[in-house]
């Protein structure tokens, strides 16, 4: 049987339960333990100001301190500027606005409260001229300078934050400081490029193009399975070479011998002797279509890349496969060679770029920042840098470790090809027929071109598969889907007044990847 209680008892029990429930205020801070607080502050002081604790501060009013023998509340040893003299300098605890090294503490700033206006002003006046203050008077850093120090990679710092070495009183004090976001420096002016010649003759998509080292002629490969050699000055056809049984995807002319190398979707890599206009060597080994090739600039080595997810290194003379560079998990779309390390760079449909050790035949670095296929890579002719093109972004990188420099955003299409000249003009050609021209240093997009398709072609046959500057860098040649080669040159009549840079010093928005 349930025992009956009076209303008074029930109310009292309810109150007691409520009291028990709320008596423990878990949000209330734990009372400060003086000893542990001293230890914590001593550690903080040693960490932040350890390198400058031996330095004297400005002279202080001894009466304000209560005599020269006042102790440091955090157990720090006191140092004077000259040993053996009366102790007149000290650095004491922290407060809401800690002084910099070499700044005198006043009665206002020693206590744990907000300093008065007069004390804050005196503190500001007492601060020595710091390096960071001197730097603030300079102009904003160039894009190239932003990631120059210690090879800082793209992911190492959030935008707008940087670890600044603040120089105060000649001593370095490392502190994490929020800096003003970098602004884009004014880009170099480049004259616009204009179309001045359209060369037709191929019966299929023109997939690849290369200019010979003497700058007299250039060569193209096409989906009509032929290789054609054209006079560069007149644009007239000089020679057609047949031998491939499928689309020709890559051509290159050797600077060291009278040879032309070609590769195609028929898995074949051929070496043509241009004195006899005949194939003299085949390089067998790829298991699928060969998408690109490049010659090493200083040794007789040929590198090819293929849909079989590998790149192969060949000895030009013996036709031997020196190395098979395996590691990519999808078709390798582009390959580039250079004399300096890393000597081989590949871009793949698996979204990665790999930098290879030629001697060992192994990957040195894998760059995974792109989110989509990397179909184009280009090396800058003068700087130790390169760029890669993908539908998500064009990215610039620094050799030898592939440190990220910057993104070039805005060419929202499948980028098939990149080219760059010594003046710092970067060209990107896309599957939809658009061509963007960029200033290499700042990443400013100074021109966009969309040339009309050849009469009789469909609008959908508007695509740029390859582009290259000639050896004088005064002509730009593009290989296109409307079966033509288009030749562009700089507009000689343009000036900075007639074609001004429509540039604003906007904040650089950097993508993390």
TrEMBL record:
Signal peptide: none annotated. One of its GO terms (biological process) is mRNA splicing, via spliceosome. It holds the Pfam family WD40. WD repeats lie at residues 199-240, 241-282, 283-324, 325-366, 408-448. One of its GO terms (cellular component) is Prp19 complex. Involved in pre-mRNA splicing as component of the spliceosome. Component of the PRP19-CDC5L complex that forms an integral part of the spliceosome and is required for activating pre-mRNA splicing. As a component of the minor spliceosome, involved in the splicing of U12-type introns in pre-mRNAs. Identified in the spliceosome C complex. Component of the PRP19-CDC5L splicing complex composed of a core complex comprising a homotetramer of PRPF19, CDC5L, PLRG1 and BCAS2, and at least three less stably associated proteins CTNNBL1, CWC15 and HSPA8. Interacts (via its WD40 repeat domain) directly with CDC5L (via its C-terminal); the interaction is required for mRNA splicing but not for spliceosome assembly. Component of the minor spliceosome, which splices U12-type introns. Within this complex, interacts with CRIPT. Also interacts directly in the complex with BCAS2 and PRPF19. This is Pleiotropic regulator 1. The gene is Plrg1.
């Amino acid at each position: 049987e349930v025992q009956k209680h009076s209303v008074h008892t029930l109310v009292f029990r309810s109150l007691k339960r409520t009291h028990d429930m709320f008596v423990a205020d878990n949000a209330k801070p734990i009372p400060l333990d003086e000893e542990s607080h001293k230890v914590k502050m001593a550690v903080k002081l040693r960490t932040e100001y350890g390198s400058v604790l031996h330095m004297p501060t400005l002279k202080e009013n001894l009466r304000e301190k209560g005599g020269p023998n006042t102790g440091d509340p955090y157990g720090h040893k006191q140092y004077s500027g000259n040993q053996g003299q009366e102790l007149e300098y000290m650095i004491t605890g922290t407060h809401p606005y800690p002084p910099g090294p070499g700044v005198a503490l006043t009665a206002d700033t020693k206590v744990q409260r907000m300093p008065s206006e007069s004390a804050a002003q005196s503190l500001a006046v007492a601060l020595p001229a710091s390096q960071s203050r001197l730097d603030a008077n300079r102009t904003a850093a160039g894009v190239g300078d932003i990631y120059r120090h210690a090879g800082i990679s793209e992911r190492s710092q959030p935008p707008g934050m940087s670890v600044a070495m603040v120089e105060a009183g000649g001593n370095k004090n490392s502190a994490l400081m929020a800096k003003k976001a970098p602004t884009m420096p004014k880009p170099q002016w480049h004259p616009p490029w204009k179309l001045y010649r359209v060369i037709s003759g191929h019966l299929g998509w023109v997939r690849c193009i290369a200019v010979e080292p003497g700058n007299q002629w250039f060569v193209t490969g096409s989906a009509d399975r032929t290789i054609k050699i054209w006079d560069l000055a007149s644009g007239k056809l000089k020679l057609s070479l047949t031998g491939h049984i499928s689309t020709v995807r890559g051509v290159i002319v050797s600077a060291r011998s009278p040879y032309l190398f070609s590769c195609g979707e028929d898995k074949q890599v051929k070496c043509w002797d241009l004195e006899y206009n005949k194939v003299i060597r085949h390089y067998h080994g790829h298991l699928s279509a060969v998408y690109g090739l490049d010659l090493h600039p200083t040794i007789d080595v040929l590198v090819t890349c293929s849909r079989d997810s590998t790149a192969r290194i060949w000895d030009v003379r013996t036709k031997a496969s020196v190395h098979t560079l395996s590691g990519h998990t999808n078709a390798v779309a582009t390959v580039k060679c250079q004399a300096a390390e890393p000597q081989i760079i590949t871009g793949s449909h698996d979204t990665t770029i790999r930098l290879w050790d030629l001697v060992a035949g192994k990957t040195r670095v894998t760059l995974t920042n792109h989110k989509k296929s990397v179909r184009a890579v280009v090396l800058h002719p003068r700087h130790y840098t390169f760029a890669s093109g993908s539908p998500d972004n064009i990215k610039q990188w620094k050799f030898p470790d592939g440190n990220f420099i910057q993104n070039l955003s805005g060419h929202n299409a499948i980028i098939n090809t990149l080219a760059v000249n010594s003046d710092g003009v970067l060209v990107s050609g896309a599957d939809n027929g658009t061509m963007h021209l960029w200033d290499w240093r700042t990443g400013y997009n100074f021109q966009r071109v969309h040339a009309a398709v050849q009469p009789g072609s469909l609008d959908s046959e508007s695509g740029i598969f390859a582009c290259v500057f000639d050896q004088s860098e005064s002509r730009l040649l593009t290989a296109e889907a409307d079966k033509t080669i288009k030749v562009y040159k700089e507009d000689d009549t343009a000036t900075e007044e007639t074609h001004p840079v429509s540039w604003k010093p906007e904040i650089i928005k950097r993508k993390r990847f």
